[in-house]
Predict the structure.
Amino acid sequence: MVLPPLRLISFDLDDTIVDSEARTPARLKALGEALRGAGVRREPAEWDAALAAALAAEPVLGGRFVPFLATLGLDPESGDTPVRAAREAYDAALYEGLGAFPDAFDVLIQLKPHYRIAVTTNGPAAMQRRKLALSGIEGLLDAAVVSGEVGVWKPDPAIFQHMCGAVGVPASEAAHVGDSLLSDIAGARAAGLVAIWRRPSPDALPGSDTPDAVIDCLSDLLPMLLPRSR
Ligand SMILES: [Mg+2]
């Protein structure tokens, strides 16, 4: 794969830089415990069904919280005490032990002399900023663009244009790396960036949102992007 000359590499945050998905079992456990602690009583088969529904959900777009509660017959939008307790426990368990993938810091350090580095992430401002702080890579970034702060969400091309503007590099000289075919790959391509898909597993298929390149881990970027290898 020959990439055009690039000056800026943007990264998605969740499940591209930080291993958010690794927190799923602990988050769902905390969610169930919080509901039980708040007095929610169900048959074991119902708890199992809620867990299955949560695990089957699309974590990026819809999240796992809503199907878990809905399967138990609870309104995820209600302000009831069990629902609020569940939300708090579910969010708190995200941050415990959350960190970057083991190769993330090293890869960014190696890319840093050659490229401007940015993060372009969807999510509420406070949540994404806290994840960024836990990632340990904040100091390496030229820009961090959070949808909750700028008011546009991937895959809207406007967020990628905003990120490029913040760094001062045109989209034609930028690449975006992410795990979501819709948010990251389709969005980046629509904005005119090179789209590099960090596929969630080696057997995942890109479908109609064709990426310009595919990686399995961030280290795969190095032979692709370091000048001596071009
Ligand atoms: Mg992601």
Observations:
- The chain has a mean pLDDT of 94.
- Residues 12, 14-16, 60, 178-180 surround magnesium ion (CB under 6 Å).
- The beta strands are 8-11, 116-121, 143-146, 174-178, 194-198, 213-215.
